[in-house]
Amino acid sequence: RKALYAQMRDLPAQTHDDVNISLNINAGLLIDVPHVIESGADGIGLYRTEIPFMVRSAMPDIEDQTRLYNRIFEQAEGRPVVFRTLDVGGDKLLPYWQDMTEENPAMGWRSIRITLDRPAVLVHQLRALIRAAHDRDLHVMFPMIAEVAEFRAARELLDRQLEREAGRGFVPRSVKVGAMLEVPALVWQANSLLGQVDFLSVGTNDLLQFMFAADRGNPRLEGRYDTLSPGVFSFLKHLVELCDDRNVRLTICGEMAGRPLEAMALIGLGVRRLSMAPASVGPVKEMVRSMNAKSVEQYVLSLLDSPSKSLRSRLKAFAIDHG
Ligand code: PEP
Ligand code: MG
């Protein structure tokens, strides 16, 4: 299979009916980055900047970060990299930071909430990103956005840093700013949100735990709710339509995007960009090249009003029937 995936590396992720799907990788450590080339992915759809913060014994300063982000750009060899700003708290703790024990960490003081409350950390990170992105395309994404006002506050911080760094000679070739959709409330502000973001990326790991009110790490709830279920599909279908109407680029970057059956269903719902663990690119590309987007779409849409708790077995049967 490895040999097959290597052979497919330079072939497009295109369905039988000529629908092109953009496949990207999720990365965190520097050693993940070369996989973008090896796997033949289009770019890095999610660079988790907190990972290098988590493996260090002290907070990296602006120079450390600039060096790191520079190397990521270099190793990505011109492929686009979407940098997600620091997403700590919840299940991701920094050993050298204040004690963050909370009753309910997933819904606690985490992610953008921390960085907006402690803007110095975010400001340093944004300066480092801008410096590393000099003459390059900068994609910045803010995590765990729950309302448009948070996105605006974060973007304003970025705009201020862009202005400041321009005065020192650091000017990215282009700047695109996006939000991660991980909190269901944000969809109910879609009208104003979609006028302000350059792109949206759905973090289904967090989003689904909030949609079902079920902790993503609790083994007792494992298997209780399925990502392949009518409620999730209706939600995503609605979101795809909103983004298509407003011409906002939508990516799915949670773990489900890297599972072939899930990826098939997402494409059936109209999703055209996926970001996944590097090892998933081969299997997902193989699936994409064997599917027909139109027939999957028809089938997936026929399941939207199903009362079943999971659509998995039916989708599996469909996938087998259709090669
Ligand atoms: C997600 O929540 O789906 C996501 C991609 O972010 P993380 O897994 O890093 O929380
Ligand atoms: Mg998340």
UniProtKB/TrEMBL annotation:
Cellular compartment(s): Cytoplasm
Chief place where the protein resides: cytoplasm
Domain of life: Bacteria
Keyword terms, alphabetized: Cytoplasm, Kinase, Magnesium, Metal-binding, Phosphotransferase system, Pyruvate, Sugar transport, Transferase, Transport
Alphabetical GO biological process terms: phosphoenolpyruvate-dependent sugar phosphotransferase system
Family affiliation: Belongs to the PEP-utilizing enzyme family.
Listed name of the protein: phosphoenolpyruvate--protein phosphotransferase
Organism (species): Thalassospira marina
Residues of the full protein shown: 434 to 756 of 759
